[in-house]
């Protein structure tokens, strides 16, 4: 896709008032100084509803997560819109070298603009380019049956819905049914 960006101010981007084009979305490694930007989504109960973590109440534990988990992680990227950090995408190792698991989160101000779909497509291209020589053949995403936005996103990004894993995941006090999605190294990326 083409980068058709027109200049945006950081304030517009942070507020989510700028109309975003795919070319404005970039990925980069996290830095400790990103902690304040991360609080925008990490402290939001609506964002956290389907995520493993509880909303953060202060930056101190988030900084520890950034230092101890994010920075050493083999593939954990900041989602940037016109340079401002607005979310995160990760592709985590599993017990099998051929298979990794996708995760993503976006600050609420940026939902519904196609940002996550663009990010997931880009992440798939990048991880297979990096890791297919090491044996990566499948990226999977496990999505709560109630998380309709995430299911739609996975399908738009080219994932195949394989089925529902019943009572698969202990989530905030309840065993949840999860939809299993996969994208294989030889699946075509949608335009
Ligand atoms: C899931 C998430 C990353 C989607 O980000 P996004 O940038 O808004 O996604 P996109 O705009 O690329 O696509 C979302 C699609 O879901 C659709 N959608 C949104 N809410 C929906 C709902 N309640 N029911 C059905 N579809 C919905 C949108 O209309 C859009 O589809 P469309 O382009 O056909 O209209 C974002 O909502 C988020 O961060 N959620 C909280 C964290 C989370 O749940 N992470 C995933 C854990 S598996």
Q: How would you describe what is shown here?
A:
By secondary structure, the protein is an alpha+beta fold. It has a domain at 10-137: 3-Layer(aba) Sandwich (Aminopeptidase). 29% of the residues lie in helices and 31% in strands. The chain has 6 helices and 7 strands, in the order αβαααβββαβαββ. A 7-stranded mixed sheet has the order 1-2-3-4-5-7-6, with helices on both faces. The radius of gyration is 16 Å and the shape is globular. Coenzyme A (COA) binds next to strand 4, helix 5 and helix 6. GO terms for molecular function: acyltransferase activity, transferring groups other than amino-acyl groups. It holds the Pfam family Acetyltransf_3. InterPro entries: Acyl_CoA_acyltransferase, GNAT_dom. This is N-acetyltransferase domain-containing protein.
Layout of SSEs?
Elements: H1 10-15, E1 25-29, H2 35-42, H3 45-48, H4 59-70, E2 76-81, E3 84-93, E4 99-106, H5 115-131, E5 138-144, H6 148-156, E6 160-171, E7 174-184
Parallel strand pairs: 4-5
Antiparallel strand pairs: 1-2, 2-3, 3-4, 5-7, 6-7
Helix pairs in contact: 2-4
Residues 47, 50-51, 104-106, 111-117, 143, 147-150, 152-153 line the site of coenzyme A (COA).
């Amino acid at each position: 896709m083409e980068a058709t960006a027109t200049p945006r101010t950081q304030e517009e981007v942070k507020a989510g008032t700028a109309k975003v084009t795919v070319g404005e979305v970039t990925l980069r490694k996290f830095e400790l100084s990103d902690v304040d930007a991360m609080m925008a989504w990490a402290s939001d109960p609506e964002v956290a509803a389907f995520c493993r973590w509880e909303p953060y109440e202060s930056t101190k534990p988030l900084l520890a997560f950034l230092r101890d988990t994010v920075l050493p992680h083999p593939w954990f990227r900041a989602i940037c819109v016109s340079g401002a950090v607005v979310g995160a995408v990760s592709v985590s190792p599993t017990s099998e070298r051929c298979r990794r698991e996708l995760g993503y989160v976006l600050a609420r101000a940026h939902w519904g603009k196609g940002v996550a779909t663009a990010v997931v497509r880009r992440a798939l291209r990048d991880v297979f380019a990096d890791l297919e020589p090491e044996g990566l053949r499948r990226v999977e995403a496990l999505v709560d049956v109630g998380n309709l936005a995430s299911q739609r996103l996975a399908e738009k990004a080219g994932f195949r819905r394989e089925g529902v894993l019943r009572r698969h995941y202990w989530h905030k006090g309840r065993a949840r049914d999860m939809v299993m999605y996969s994208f294989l190294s030889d699946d075509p990326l949608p335009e």
